Amino acid sequence: MQIHKLENEELKIQVNSTGAELDSIYNKKYQLEYLWSGDPAFWAKKSPVLFPIVGTLKNNEYYFQNRSYKMGRHGFAREKEFEVTDQSSENIIFSLKSNGETLKQYPFNFLFDIIYRITGNCLQVSFQVTNTGHDVMYFSVGGHPAFKLPLEAATVYEDYFLEFSEIENAGHWPISPDGLIEEAPLPLLDNTKMLPLNKQLFQKDALVFKDLRSDKVSLRSVKTPRCINFTFTGFPYLGIWAAKNADFVCIEPWCGIADSVHSDQQLINKEGINRLDPRNIFKRTWSVEAR
């Protein structure tokens, strides 16, 4: 495990080589940390990367070409040691390659690059998946960054809200006790851009959204100008989550989703699964502006 740093005049970030997990987003002008502390009393992670699945598999198992494979929630990448394959003053690239160990859980050859780039007060995080094998590859990928709340000491958690870039009429999809997506959504966003935050929202796990109109969401308060602008263009699913009674909120862009309660567990039929031909590259980028 190593901590790698990237810094410009406005922003300083740190990334842990284990899981290529973001460890810090620090705005130098405001002398303010925007990322959750990783307090293990609540949740020891800060920004795990989800690959090659997002969420939970039914019975932690899937089937591909008549074989059964076991895999835990959110996949294995977040526990793997990544290699730094390129670094400049603006970006750093972490890479994970398939190997004998990954093939036991996931029968595809791949190169998974995570690219961190800073420009001004903005951090861009790119997920780049290359199919290095000879067959079609099936995968999901997603982010799970946790932002501390309150951002400033003079405010409290309930002072903050999420503001979507478009007016939304969207329910959230409940998660079963087994971590699976229930069969019907519950009402939540009713002709509004606003979602006021409070810790009761997450007592039953994450708020899961499918196909929102928005591709941007801001974490704001009327009591402070400090805020976060989060962009997730190209991610069809979004999760909003916090551990019970913890001082953070996760904004999670996903290309993929947990199995439904009715899943047949066949990987090729999995909702939100991405199909990648041999030698082809899949790339998605989310970004956060720390203001």
Written description of the protein model:
- The protein is mainly β.
- It has a single domain, classed as Beta-galactosidase, Chain A, domain 5 (Distorted Sandwich).
- Helix content is 2%, strand content 47%.
- It has one helix spanning 100-105, and strands at residues 3-7, 11-16, 21-27, 32-33, 61-64, 67-70, 83-87, 91-97, 110-119, 122-131, 137-139, 141-142, 146-148, 160-172, 186-196, 207-210, 216-221, 224-231, 237-241, 248-255, 274-276, 281-290.
- The strands form five sheets. It has a nine-stranded antiparallel beta sheet, with no helix packed on it.
- Strand 17 and strand 18 form a beta hairpin.
- The longest helix is centred in the middle third of the chain and has 6 residues, at 100-105.
Largest sheet: 9 strands, antiparallel
Strand order of the largest sheet: 7-8-9-10-22-18-17-14-15
Shape: globular
CATH class division: Mainly Beta
**Poorly predicted segments:** none
Question: CA-to-CA gap between the ends?
Answer: 30 Å
What name does CATH use for the topology? Beta-galactosidase, Chain A, domain 5
Helix coverage percent = under 10%
Query: What is the tally of helical segments?
Result: 1
- By secondary-structure content and strand pairing, the structural class works out as mainly beta
The proportion of strand residues reads over 45%
What is the averaged pLDDT score? 97
Query: What is the H-and-E element order?
Result: EEEEEEEEHEEEEEEEEEEEEEE
Radius of gyration: 19 Å
**Second-tier CATH architecture:** Distorted Sandwich
- According to DSSP, the number of beta strands is 22
How many structural domains in the coordinates?
A: 1
